[in-house]
Amino acid sequence: KRDWSSDVCSSDLNGAKPTLSPAQESAIKTAKESYLATIKQAREGAIRAVADAKSLLEQELAAAGKDKELKANAVVNYKKNVAAIWAVFKKTETEAKTTLRSTLNSISHL
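The structure corresponding to this sequence follows.
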C-alpha cells in the first residue's frame, strides 16, 4: 500500500496562498493601525488611571495618620480600583482583537 502523504511537500503548497488586491492590503493595514491605536489609547488611559489611584492612596494614607484600619481600608480600595482599571483595559483589548479578527476575516473573503 502506498503512502501518498509523502508526495506533497511545502513547496507544492506555495501557490495555494490567495493574492490580495491593493484595496485589501490597504484595508488590512488600516484595520491593524486602528487596532494598535485603540490598544495604545486604552493602555495610556489605564496607566493614567492607576497613577491617579496611587496618588489618591498616598493622600488617604497621609490623612489616616497612625490609624491602621483606615490605612488598611485605603490599600484595599486601591487594589480594587487597580483591578477594575485593568479589567476595563483587558475588556477593551479583547474587543479590539475580536474586531480586528472579524475585519481581517471579512477582508480576506472579498
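The first helix runs from residue 10 to 13.
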